[in-house]
Specification:
Radius of gyration: 29 Å
Structural class: alpha/beta
Number of domains: 1
CATH class: Alpha Beta
Strand content: 15-25%
Shape: elongated
Largest sheet: 5 strands, mixed
Number of strands: 15
Helix content: 25-40%
Distance between the termini: 139 Å
Order of helices and strands: HHEEEEEEEEEEEEEEHEH
CATH superfamily: Ribonuclease Inhibitor
CATH topology: Leucine-rich repeat, LRR (right-handed beta-alpha superhelix)
């Protein structure tokens, strides 16, 4: 009798441990390589990371019949093998430091409706060279692209009205296109960020002024020489 009780106790203990184990990996995760959780209100999906060190990740716009709307803070941080990632337009929030220190990340496809890049989003992504900021973007957070030494030409959308502290610090190859954004032109001038000043900003104004002065000087010189020639010809 005691043996039966001990046996049954062991079985119940085993079943208790088994049922408490977190079986969170499902078909959607296995196919895409992403880890996720459902929002507290049960209406959308939050991407929390990747199951393995995949070189390329394409996040689905829908998982378990729910829209994928958020990438959690630090979700892909320190994923050294991540080379490219494509984020669907369903995503409206990308958390702080989501891709920080992804040392192999070369290109990112951002969602079309994104309004904010938070602090440290791509900090120390040292080989990131291709990224297009969506036209809906309004905010670039502190240190967002710090240490992205390979990042080259980057167009700042017209709606951006806030660029955080040292957002482009140590971006040795950066060349901002600010022709649609006077605020970004002013920011670049104040923070010594290399810029294609093509129509806005203090720097452009100064360059236009200098160009105008040089042009008038050249015209005056040509007129002066022409008068000299005409006078000399009349004297003959």
């Amino acid at each position: 009798m005691k043996r039966k009780i001990r046996f049954l106790t062991a079985v119940f203990a085993f079943l208790s441990v088994l049922t408490s184990m977190p079986f969170s990996v499902n078909a959607a995760q296995a196919e895409s390589g992403v880890e996720y959780r459902i929002s507290d209100d049960g209406t959308y999906v939050i991407i929390t990371g990747i199951t393995e060190e995949f070189p390329s990740v394409k996040i689905e716009s829908e998982i378990e019949g729910l829209p994928v709307k958020e990438i959690a803070a630090s979700a892909f941080q320190n994923k050294y093998s991540l080379y490219t990632i494509e984020i669907p337009d369903s995503v409206t929030v990308i958390g702080e430091a989501a891709f920080r220190n992804c040392r192999s990340l070369v290109s990112v496809r951002l969602p079309a409706g994104l309004k904010e890049l938070k602090m440290d989003t791509f900090r120390d992504c040292s080989v990131l060279s291709s990224i297009t900021l969506p036209s809906t973007l309004e905010t670039i957070g502190d240190f967002c692209f710090q240490g992205c030494i390979k990042l080259g030409k980057l167009t700042i959308p017209a709606l951006v009205n806030e660029i955080g502290y040292d957002a482009f610090m140590e971006c040795e190859s950066i060349m901002l296109n600010v022709k649609e954004n006077a605020y970004a032109a002013e920011y670049a001038a104040a923070n010594n960020v290399n810029t294609e000043f093509s129509g806005t900003g203090t720097y452009f104004f100064l360059m236009m002024t200098l160009g105008t002065v040089v042009l008038f000087a050249a015209v005056f010189f040509v007129i002066f020489i022409a008068k000299k020639i005409i006078k000399k010809s009349s004297g003959k």
